[in-house]
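Standup notes
- HV: blocked on the assembly model, inputs below
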Amino acid sequence: MLKKNKHAYFFHNLPPDKVLAIFSDRTYNLGFYSTASQKLRAKRQSFLKPLGINFRNLVCTKQPHLNKIILIKENHKGKGSSNFKDAISGVDGLITKTKHLPLAVFSADCLSIFLFDPKNEAVGLLHAGWRGTYKKISQNAILKMQKIFGTNPNDLLVSFGPAIRKCCYEVGFKFRKYFSSDLIKRKNKLFLDLIEANLKQLINTGVKKKNIFDCKICTSCQNKRFFSYRREKEKAGRMMSLMMLK
Ligand SMILES: [Zn+2]
C-alpha cells in the first residue's frame, strides 16, 4: 500500500487514478524553516518536477499546531509555494474539491493525515501535532467535509504519513491532563500514541477501521531517512506531505 519512487512515497490505498498522495524523505528540506526562499524554491522544484507538479501551484499554510480547517479553492493556488509570508495563516488542515490543486503540509514528527472521499471526489490533508490532536483536528476535518461536500465518513479512505510514534514520543506527566487513554507508561516515563489518538477520532466519527492505512514509519527510529524534530531540534528540516485530486 506504500510504494517508493526515488524520494517520494506513494499511498496506494487511495486510488492512484483519482488522487496523488505522497510524502518525501530527508533528501530535501522542503519546509520553510532554516531555508532561504531561493533555495526553498529550488528544492521544492527538484522534488516535485519529476512528479509532474509545478511547485508554484502549491497551497501551504503556516501550521500553528492547532485544529482549524480551511476550504481551499482555485484562488488559493500558489499560497506559500515560494515563501512563508504568503502561506495561509492559522490553519493546520486543508480540504478541497478543486482538481489539480496540490495541497501541502510539512512535518518533522507531527502526523500527516490524508483523507479521500471517493463518492464526492474530495480530499483533506491534515497536520496533526499533539495540540491539534487534543483539539480534535481529525474529527473537525471530517465534520467540515460532511458539511461542505456531503461526505459520508463511512466512505472515507485514510492514510497516515510518517510521525514520531509511541516507541519514541516521550512526553511530560502534565499530558495526563490532555490525554486519558493514549499514554503509555514505561520505566517511569510517559509516551504519547499520537497515531492511536487520531485513529480513535476517525473511527468515532464514522470512518471504517479497514479504510485506514498507516505507513507505520517512526521519524525518530528512522531518523537516517526522515527528519525528526525531537532528535534534531532546531536543525531539523521538514518533509512534505502532498495531496492532489487528479
Ligand atoms: Zn520510534
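- HV (later): unblocked. The mean pLDDT is 95. The pocket of zinc ion is lined by residues 165, 167-168, 218, 220-221 (CB under 6 Å).
- Next: hand off to the docking folks.
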